[in-house]
């Protein structure tokens, strides 16, 4: 059986999860795991925790932090928290309000908390009427990590995935959430009414000068990450 976790640069791993429905669109899921210098694991946007994935995760180390980057990426937090009750849940305030069934131990902001300050930086994209998102930068792999602010679907995926064929593929292309430089979905882009504050987060992200770019939905980038992000955010420039 193939490994679920695959390395993406030094100290960073990705895993693909099941497809979930979002407003009738089938979205793939993806998580990232970073090994912190203190030894614990930082788990971003957890996917469904099946036995194989759990074994592979525990071979890397012990999950210490479970991170939701926006109010959409919270579906599997509860099963990870049940499996690793000592792990600390982190989210933006909107996520904590939405998931009152979970006890969040930390609130995400523009500055990384002491628990991962030396390993991971972060920036909050605000200014939208719909949703904020925290973007992260994994230092040792020089990777920027996005949830939904960049969606970069391949046409092959759209054409071969039931539920995406036909008019939904046309919408994806019109929304420009496809390769080679996907963006945020159109309705989210239009909701950024305070673009100056969003540009501040973008400038911080570009200053990291990332090599790789990971996103929850679509094809990741392994080279020239800064240039890719600039093109993906041309709507905000």
Write a concise keyword list for the protein shown above.
237 residues; single chain; Metallo-beta-lactamase, Chain A; seven-stranded mixed β-sheet; alpha/beta
Description:
With 237 residues, the protein is α/β, with parallel strands linked by helices. It has a single domain, classed as Metallo-beta-lactamase, Chain A. The chain is 27% helix and 23% strand. The chain is built from eight helices and 13 strands. The strands form three sheets. Strands 1-2-5-6-7-8-9 form a seven-stranded mixed beta sheet. A four-stranded mixed beta sheet has the order 10-11-12-13, covered by helices on one side. A two-stranded antiparallel ribbon has the order 3-4. A hairpin with a 2-residue loop joins β3 and β4. The chain is globular, with a radius of gyration of 17 Å. The mean pLDDT is 94.
């Amino acid at each position: 059986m193939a490994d679920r976790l695959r390395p993406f640069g030094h100290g960073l791993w990705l895993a693909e999860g099941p497809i979930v429905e979002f407003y009738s669109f089938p979205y793939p899921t993806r998580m990232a795991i970073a090994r912190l210098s203190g030894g614990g694991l930082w788990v971003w946007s957890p996917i469904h925790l099946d036995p194989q994935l759990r074994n592979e995760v525990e071979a890397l180390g012990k999950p210490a932090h479970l991170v939701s980057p926006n109010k959409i990426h919270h579906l599997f937090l509860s099963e990870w928290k049940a499996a690793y009750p000592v792990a600390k849940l982190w989210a933006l305030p909107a996520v904590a309000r939405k998931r009152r069934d979970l006890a969040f131990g930390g609130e995400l902001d523009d500055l990384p908390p002491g628990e991962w300050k030396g390993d991971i930086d972060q920036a909050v994209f605000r200014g939208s009427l719909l949703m904020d998102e925290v973007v992260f930068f994994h230092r040792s792999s020089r990777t920027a990590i996005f949830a939904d602010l960049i969606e970069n679907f391949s046409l092959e995926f759209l054409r071969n995935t039931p539920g995406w064929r036909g008019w939904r593929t046309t919408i994806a292309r019109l929304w420009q959430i496809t390769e080679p430089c996907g963006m945020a979905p159109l309705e989210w882009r239009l909701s950024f009414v305070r673009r100056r504050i969003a540009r501040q987060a973008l400038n911080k992200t570009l200053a990291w000068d990332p090599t790789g770019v990971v996103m929850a939905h679509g094809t990741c980038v392994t080279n020239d990450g800064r240039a890719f992000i600039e093109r993906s955010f041309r709507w905000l420039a």
